[in-house]
Design brief:
263 residues, mainly alpha, 62% helix
Length: 263
Amino acid sequence: MGTLILALAWSIHPALAQEPKDAQDVLTAYGAELLKGIKQTNDTALRSRLITSAKTAFANDLKTAVNKVPKSKWDYHQLYLSNLIQADKRYTTEDTKPERSAWITACKAVFSFQLLHAAEPAAPVVTTEEVFTELFAGIDKVRKDVPNASSADIRSAAYIGARQVFSERLVGAHAPVRSPQSIYTEQLIKIDKVYPLPQAAPPPPVSNTPAKSTASSSGGGKSSGGGGSAPPPKEEYDFHTEPNGILKAGAKQAFDKSLTAPK
């Protein structure tokens, strides 16, 4: 009998030893595999196969992963932002674009998993106004932490993640004490103040002076004149349109919710 029990114990031991991995650890291991492939070879085809195999292992591990220490949804968004920013440290060259894309996609998958298993702290009921204030703070955080024009891909992903948290938090929100219309108006004004939309440049003035001839004189002299027109000014990167749109959509969403939410 004792021998049978011992045999059973040994047969189930490997299963017991395989403790579920934390989702963040799964992502970290995936990132390590991507970096390993970059260091091992410059062969594009081989790197592509290494990315595919790493994706397969990542997907399998995420299926059985857990959140060992559950956090709030906004805490997970901050972790998501930190993970996304790693792309600007690891995958910055043209030849690492496939790894960068794979990393960002994996960050999104882990973030969605973490939100699904998040643990919101016990707290007083929040209002639609308060939830929108959270969204504004989240958007501001993304804008400040991802300041480079070249990081549009990770900035957009983080903005969308903030909107996702906002939408989930808004579900259980209560109506604000103040007038929803007044709050909505104030929010729109603030959005345009903090993230003003770019204004179209005025058209250049039309000159009534006839254009000078560039033909040379009969004496063969060189044409005079100061040369061609000045090159157009370099356009600045638009950092405001995207957050402006997300925040205005969020403000409208909060306003609509406040009209039917419980007091």
